[in-house]
Design goal:
By secondary structure, this protein is an all-alpha fold. The chain has two domains: 184 residues; 201 residues, I/LWEQ domain (Up-down Bundle). It is 77% helix and 0% strand. The chain contains 16 helices and no strands. α1 runs parallel beside α3.
Length: 387
């Protein structure tokens, strides 16, 4: 078996079966984060969940860049990918107690995951000074993050959370240094990979609906809540895949050089994180709602239900600003309305709060479909760009 990684060619833009297999581990990671916040529906639990999600997301997106550069199914890279999957799985297993007894286990698994990524990238870039320089810059932030995670494993409380926050910011900053210089990109493959991971996140929210329903007697209220949760998930899917994903991918394909690399970093590696976080938070809220349809939500579950969808829409607004330099006002209005609905959501039955969220999301999708019907038709039926 050859040791040297096989670098992707210009036309090799399809997501491979092994990449999809790798993404299945991320499905479990999202489920674990949802469970962590659901089990501890407090402000501290919410922060813990978001920090754990941020770390796991950054590990995933690091491998998305790696497999965008080299073919994961060729040579020894396939075996290395299985090793990375094992580390991601162990880190995910540690999530429920990641700020307690399993903090050191998570730090160890995360360190293996990131170091393996850097080693594979360095081997792939051997002889390419620009790529090796980019790997070196990324390694600085990764190393700081790993060290801080190990330090945080021996702490607890706010100091532990603070170290985690600095570790995450250090890791995120590593990709910002250098402005994308030295990296390579296959635009179609990269956009498709992130679109698929968004579907996975939406799928996890549907799983959360099912889990919540299974914890209660399956009466009319639970069935209606489940259907409303599915309605919101469908609206979130529509908001991204109807037009946004198509425009973003074409814009990424049309851009070249370092501008393309920074667009990929900002639009996909950075801004897809709040999209996924918003979906996970919504999953927490809808799980609590389906389990207690007749009772008002507590404050944090209400924040996750309404604020999660708002965060998702705000990420879309920033996504559009970054790519086409224009503001999506309808989504901004709905995001503000969702945040304003939080005080109401803690006073009315959870089923009514979910119905309000579903109504706002459905109204947004309906308005955009009618108001921008001609532009939507042009985008969806435009000829595919040449590869």
């Amino acid at each position: 078996m050859p040791l040297q990684p096989h670098v992707r060619g210009e036309g090799e833009e399809r997501v491979t079966a092994l990449e999809l297999f790798f993404d299945l581990i991320f499905v479990f990671a999202l489920t674990q984060v949802t469970g962590l916040v659901s089990a501890t529906p407090t402000w501290e639990g919410l922060v813990q969940g978001l920090l754990a999600l941020g770390m796991l997301w950054w590990a995933w997106t690091a491998y998305a860049w790696l497999t965008n550069t080299i073919d994961p199914e060729e040579g020894a890279v396939r075996l290395a990918m299985f090793g990375a999957m094992g580390a991601m799985f162990v880190a995910s297993l540690a999530v429920p107690h990641v700020f307690a007894d399993d903090a050191l286990l998570f730090a160890s698994a995360y360190a293996f995951l990131r170091i393996a990524h850097l080693v594979l990238y360095a081997v792939a870039g051997w002889g390419d000074r620009d790529l090796l320089g980019a790997v070196g810059r990324l390694a600085v932030g990764s190393s700081i993050g790993i060290v801080l995670l190990f330090a945080a494993a021996g702490l607890d409380g706010r100091l532990q959370l603070a170290l985690w926050a600095v570790a995450l910011l250090s890791d995120l900053a590593g990709a910002y240094i250098g402005g994308g210089r030295g990296w390579t990109l296959s635009a179609g493959h990269f956009a498709e990979r992130h679109a698929l991971i968004l579907i996975i996140a939406l799928g996890e929210s549907i799983v959360a609906v099912g889990v919540g329903a299974s914890q209660s007697e399956l009466d009319l209220g639970v069935v209606v809540a489940a259907l409303l949760g599915l309605t919101v998930a469908a609206a979130l899917w529509w908001a991204y895949f109807d037009v946004v994903a198509l425009v973003a991918e074409r814009k990424l394909r049309e851009t070249t050089g370092r501008a393309q690399l920074t667009m990929a970093r900002d639009s996909y590696s950075y801004l897809h994180l709040p999209m996924v976080a918003g979906i996970v938070l919504f999953a927490v809220g809808v799980k609590k709602t389906v389990a207690h349809v007749g009772d008002p939500l507590e404050l944090v579950p209400a924040v996750t239900l309404c604020g999660g969808v708002a965060l998702y829409l705000v990420a879309h607004i920033l996504f559009r600003l970054r790519n086409v330099r224009s503001l999506n006002r309808p989504r901004l209005v709905v995001a503000v309305a969702l945040l304003a609905a939080i005080p109401l959501a803690v006073e009315i039955p959870a089923l009514a709060a979910l119905a309000l969220v579903a109504g706002l999301c459905s109204a947004l999708i309906g308005y955009e479909a009618i108001r921008y019907s001609q532009a939507r038709d042009r985008v969806r039926h435009a000829p595919e760009p040449a590869t």
